[in-house]
Amino acid sequence: MTLSFYIHIPYCIKRCGYCDFNTYTPAELGQGEVGRSEISSRYMSSVQREILRAAKELQTKQLPQITTIFFGGGTPSLMDPLDIARTIAKIDEIFSLTKDCEITLEANPDTLNEMNVAGFAEAGVNRISLGVQSANQKVLATLDRTHKNSNVQRALELAVQNGIKGRSIDLIYGTPGESVAALEESLDFALSLPIDHVSAYALIVELGTRLARQVASGEIATPDDDEMADKYRIIDERFNQAGFHWYELSNWANSLDARSRHNQVYWNGGDWWGVGPGAHSHLDGKRWWNIKNPISYMNALDNDLTIIAGEETLSESAKSDERIMLGIRLREGIARDELKKIQEEVVARYIASEAVDQSAWDMGRLTLTLKGRLIADRIVRDLVL
Amino acid sequence: MPALSSKKAPQPAATNPAAIRNFCIIAHIDHGKSTLADRMLQITEVVDARNMRDQYLDRMDIERERGITIKSQAVRLPWRSGIDGQEYILNMIDTPGHVDFTYEVSRSLAACEGALLLVDAAQGIEAQTLANLYLAMENNLTIIPVLNKIDLPAAQPDKFAAELAKLIGCEPSDCLRVSGKTGEGVRELLDQIVRDIPPPLGDANKPARALIFDSVYDTYRGVVTYVRVVDGKLSPRDTIQMLSTGVKHEMLEVGVISPEPMASNGLGVGEVGYLITGVKDVRQSRVGDTVTTFNKPAKEPLAGYKDPKPMVFSGLYPIDGDEYPVLRDALEKLQLNDAALVYEPETSAALGFGFRCGFLGLLHMEIVRERLEREFNLSLISTAPNVVYRVTTDDGKELIVTNPSEYPAGKIANVFEPVVRATVLSPSEFIGTIMELCQQRRGVLLGMDYLSEDRVEIRYKLPLAEIVFDFFDQLKSRTRGYASLDYEPTGEEEGDLVKVDILLQGDTVDAFSAIVHREKAYPYGVSMTQKLRELIPRQQFEVPIQAAIGAKIIARENIRAIRKDVLAKCYGGDITRKRKLLEKQKEGKKRMKMVGRVEVPQEAFIAALSTNSEGEKAKAKR
After folding, report:
1. Which residue of A has its CA nearest to B580?
2. Which residues of A touch B567 (CB under 8 A)?
3. d(Cα A281, Cα B544) in Å, to the nearest integer?
4. What is the widest separation between alpha-carbon atoms in chain A?
5. Do B564 and A204 touch (CB under 8 A)?
6. How far is B503 from chain A, CA to nearest CA, in Å?
7. Domain at A325, CATH number
8. Residue of A311, A310, A293 lying closest to A46 (CA atoms)
9. Which of A102, A366, B42, B574 is the 20 to 30 Å CA partner of A88?
10. How many CA atoms lie within 13 A of B569 on its CB side?
11. What is the pLDDT of residues A129-140, one digit of tens each?
12. ipTM of the predicted structure?
């Protein structure tokens, strides 16, 4: 048995207008006067406490080996590398890491420097994921992002210098006001970087964000779905030309090794323990999630109280829905023999409209064509009914 | 005290016709008929204060809530006249207040010798009241004009007394002024009924003849038939016979309502009461029919019997297809109490299994639908209402079309549509806008008269189809609710009519087909295709929406194929949220109907079938 850890870092220096993640500025948490290193050590010690709880919980069985760790956020690169190092060491001490354990850290380009990149590498981080979003200054401004492109280049060079092998960037496309030329500018820039992986996400206007309010008031135009579709096609084509191939709807890698193993755990229905406020976990058909507020989370751990906000045990039909919902997003798709007769009829319709790949289907897999990837949610709806 | 205790009062089957007064109240909805009736029940002491409740006589919840009286009733009120001190029996026969029920009104009137013309002293007479007044005058009823609600600050009794006086040819001072709310003037009114309305005339020795003026289904007793005896006598042990059909029934009970049912020894000349025979279906006891006795039957029926004829048709479909049997049973049950309701099964490619139902008019349709939804807990879609067309084809055939989808495709020689004579009463400032509306609806002006300085009666000939299509809502919104409408069918006329079909991806959506005037075909096609383009979500493929007359396309819209339907992110925390959304969407999918390969949400059908957004708003205001 193997397990992955997701470790949530719920801090940002400022909140971006489009973001609905569970993240806070220190001021929002009443920690405005507290120094960064103090926040880091206080928070990361809570994380270690939860890891101990996980070990206790799992102790009835033999403790699994850890295949991947993912520090996500928020902005994990705000944490002190020593705290990250202690956390990784703790996991290794209690659970033991596999030899090739993938350890990813999400980073904001502005927060990286020679010192901390070296520290993270020293701690064991072997994959870095940079939030770039765009290379166009106007788009970055709409997204509330502050970094300069030169920072991105420098951060990745530092990663190279420090032997961090996996290097990925995130892009956002379809931001209101983003021209096709601006998208091309971002793609040119991305492909000039020393990376082996890229994630590209269509902008989602999430309820409750500042962006949603700006769209509702008409200050910012609603992102247009047809335009999104056009841009996805451009992105896929440019990446293909550069040797990056999709392995999940929004993820491209230039080799099999470069694929994010951690994220594949999610998509393949694997087990992971999500550590930190608001983090979700999945073990053996059971899902649960932690309380969202970081202060309440830390206090609960200090006082030996529960940190779980909700949980569900998946029914067989929920499991099968999830397999379809997640599997269809993957290049490998879903095994044909997992589908029922009635679902095969749905597939036949989508083969006719060229959304499902005929030759793969003939060889026993349901996989989506480019056209199909763009309407994956609709296909899932038709399949699960 | 002029009131009589019921024990001393003349008893049923033993009341001298000379002491009987039969009257009804003609009034518009909201003009206070039920409240006045409540006061009469109290003043004549047939209901004591302890048992009194508002709108005592209105039986069905639906009536009480909407302020409409759908079914009439008859109440026997004993009264000692304040003028001559003699004992009298007043039979108050309630009348339906709406244009859809004109025939029932006419039978109620036929059971009376007099009518109270009850008008709100703050509003003046309304079109339907006027129509019923004319009906009463045609029946030679004695009319007593009464202004109600004189307690209201906004009452203008002098103005409306003049209006009434002009209408019925009396002096303004002849109009009684009462308040149903405070009871002011009600005793005087009862005395005036005794003085002015003639007693019933009839021959007690002739074979029995009684007019059925109402017939109501009761869950426990079966059909309760309300009658007015004209000649002879009906007794508890009689076998009775319906003259129109010859069908016999054993009498189980005969009695009067005062105001609760009371069995009696029978009903004599001029008396009003009820019969129970154990019949389970009101269609066996039809309004307007004549009841006689089997042993000594009358030969001649009373004049004026008509079969109720449905004027407006609409398809009713359960939103949940599984509820079809519930709808079928519900219609069966409603029909027990509604001889005018007709229905037959119908299948729509778009809406599934349902029924094509025929109604007396729009209100009747609304009431039936509301009762189905409320009493049987059904959720329904109804197709746009249409009228009955008579179509002749080139090869000499003739057919009656009650559903646009039955409209013949071949060579049509002539199409005939029902026309009505419509009367609109309105403040004169709205004449322009009313005439404009009527012209748009193919109306022909028949005449116009001023009722008073600032109130006008406008008469138009209009195709019924135009009235059925949101005319009333338009009239109300154009006149800020002041205009009132009445209409009566006057036959049929040839019309330049065509059927417009709506096609989704080449498939006709039967629920949206409509028979319209040729000049309206294009606007109908354009508005319908545009509406559907807005309402139907984008599909995997492009969906053309077309409006067509036969093979000729007159309007076209396109729903572009959906190109993106996917959320970019799906990581650890998204999975539960996304699956739950999926479960919700599964539910939503059950409400999708397939038209060919096109998925159409139920809501799109409902929205597209509602007449228009303005009409909806007007309805919401009412």
Report:
1. A318
2. 204, 377
3. 47
4. 63
5. no
6. 22
7. 1.10.10
8. A293
9. B574
10. 20
11. 999 999 999 999
12. 0.91
Tokens 């108050």 correspond to B92
Q: Which of B563, B571, B582 sits opposite A321 (nearest CB)?
A: B582
> Is residue A82 over pLDDT 90?
yes
Residue B135 or B97, more confident:
B135
Q: Which of B559, B562, B564 to mutate to test the interface with A (most CBs of A within 10 A)?
A: B564
Q: Which residues pair with B492 in a beta bridge?
A: B418
Q: Which helix (H) or strand (E) holds B142?
A: strand B142-148
C-beta of residue B294 within 8 angstroms of C-beta of residue B242: no
Q: Which of A267, A294, A327 is the last residue of a domain?
A: A267
Chain A residue nearest residue B568, CA to CA: A201
Percentage of chain A surpassing pLDDT 90? Answer: 90
Q: In this complex, do A280 and B576 lie within 8 Å of one another by their Cβ atoms?
A: yes
Confidence of residue B279 (pLDDT cuts 50, 70, 90): confident
Residues A233 and A333 in one domain: no
Domain boundary (A267, A282, A309) is at: A267
Using CB atoms and an 8 Å cut-off, which of residues 543-602 of chain B contact chain A? Answer: 560, 562-573, 575-576, 578-579, 582-583, 585-586, 589
Shortest CA distance to B4 belongs to which of B86, B94, B92, B75?
B86
Domain count of the fold of chain A: 2
Residue A385 has a pLDDT of: 77
In 3D space, the residue among B195, B202, B203 whose CA is nearest the CA of residue B176 turns out to be B195
Per-residue model confidence (pLDDT) at position B59: 53
Q: Do the Cβ atoms of B573 and A279 come within 8 Å?
A: yes
Number of A/B CB contacts below 8 angstroms equals 96
Inter-chain residue contact A374 with B582, CB threshold 8 Å: no
% of residues, chain B, pLDDT over 70: 93
Residue-level pLDDT at B60: 47
- State the DSSP code for B183: -
| pTM of the entire predicted model | 0.69
Among residues B374, B342, B365, the alpha carbon closest in space to that of B355 is found at: B342
Q: Which of A267, A374, A285 is nearest to A323 (CA)?
A: A267
Cβ-based contacts of A378 with chain B (< 8 Å) = 540, 562, 565-566
CATH number at residue A184: 3.20.20.70
Residues of the domain holding A325: 317-383
**A337 and A223 within one domain:** no
Say whether residue A273 is in contact with chain B using an 8 A CB cutoff.
Answer: no
Q: In this structure, are A6 and A80 located in the same domain?
A: yes
Peptide bond into B259 cis (omega under 30): yes
Q: Which amino acid is present at B182?
A: T
**pLDDT at position B148, please?**
95
In a domain, A286, yes or no: no
Examine the domain organization and report whether A228 and A330 are in the same domain: no
Contact flag A322-B579 (C-beta cutoff 8 Å): yes
Q: Count Cα neighbours of B321 within 13 Å in the Cβ-side half-sphere.
A: 13
